[in-house]
Amino acid sequence: AHGAMTFPRPRSAADGELAPWTRWAYPCDEIHKGADCAIHFCESTSGCQGACPISAHNGVKNALNASNGQACYWFSNGCTIGCKTCDGTHNHFGPHGDQRFLYRGMNASELRKKNLTIDNPWNPPEGYTLDPSSKFGIKSMCDSPSTNATVCDPRLRTANTQAECGGPDDIYYYSPWRAPGSAPVIDACGVAGGRLHGQGAGCAGASFQNSSVAKMGDMGSRLPPLDSGVVWAAGSS
Q1: How far apart are CA 103 and CA 107, in angstroms?
Q2: Each residue of 56-80: b (16+ CB within 10 Å) or e?
Q3: What is the pLDDT of residues 99-117, one digit of tens each?
Q4: Fewest 10 Å CB contacts: which of 95, 104, 166, 235?
């Protein structure tokens, strides 16, 4: 998941003091146009200044800036439960994203024609099933995972909750949150772009725009200290 602390400011936000992040702001105006005000998912090694926006705290409604740099792109990619290492490339191993679902036998096009909507597709009502013509085959990153999913109760899952645990439509079965503590990481503090040098191009945000302070594959645990300007005394709240 792409998230980052914003207060206190984390060490991984150091590039927020550099261009093009210092040029970025939302909403767009006469000064901030195009890539300098666009909010987007970073899928390349450039133009990533709008990928981790935070509140500008300037009193303007919905105003954002990029002072947190690429802090939300320090993570570990390609890690599944029960494996020893992460491959850095796959966020899911297998045809993830090619699945299509049906509601009471109707596909998305048919639902639109009948003006039917599903309020919460992450926790769908009864009758929501995987289209049998979809591609199956989600699997572990390693040949012999040491564990299976331990979180199977639909009440403890936030997505695809109608799938039978371990069934062909349980496309998140090998994801780290399905057996907490059993998936490996590349670095305990994340790695720039979620992958190491030499690992294949990643997807779903396994990217990073190099700068003078950090480059793709840098380890979060090796980042120098960053003065956050915040001091908390022991025992305070």
Answers
A1: 7
A2: eeeeeeeebbbbbbbbbbbbbbbbb
A3: 788 888 998 899 999 998 8
A4: 235
